[in-house]
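ok trying again, last paste got cut off:
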Amino acid sequence: MNKDQLKVYLVTDNNALNGRDFFEVVEQALKGGVTMVQLREKMLKTSDFLKKANKLKQLTQKYNVPMIINDRMDIAFDSNSDGLHVGQKDIAICDEGQKMRNNYGKILGVTANTVALAQEAEKMGADYLGVGAVFGTTTKADAKPLTIQELKEIVESVSIPVVAIGGITVENVHLLKGIGLAGVAVSSGIMGVDDVLAATKSFKNLEL
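nice, full thing came through this time. structure:
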């Protein structure tokens, strides 16, 4: 995995679409410069999830952007995704994800919101960390807010790349400058805005 692929990391959020077509919105984000896409689905049954993953993989391949599946290793394998992202509590999944990484060259991302969890994830073979929620979030109800200082301490505690996540928008992303982040993971800050293309370009042009 190239660190630059984490700069503008889109986490899909169907609730932000406001009636718009999922794939049209994602393609606008890809045109704007999104560097990685994580397909996050909590409600779809397996067959529909796989169908959506397969279609999204075709779209991200068109723009030479990696597609990561959230939590579901079976979907990650069956859709030939570029990797898997797992939560900090999903240690068993993380262990399997490590095998997927080592045996098949897939990317493994792990969520962590403490120094201890970040260091544990690095030892387990994570390629990158998603850390937050830095500004709160409506995407994950159980996500606890994280201060900028706590985020900085996590970044400094590991040698693998870190992306910040949680409530990040074009208006507040400048607050994350100078921390040492590889990028930002954005959900409704891209998919929920009127001009997806312009918002994505703004994230892409930002120097962290």
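cool. The helical segments are 22-32, 46-62, 73-78, 91-104, 115-123, 148-157, 188-191, 196-205. The first strand starts at residue 8 and ends at 11.
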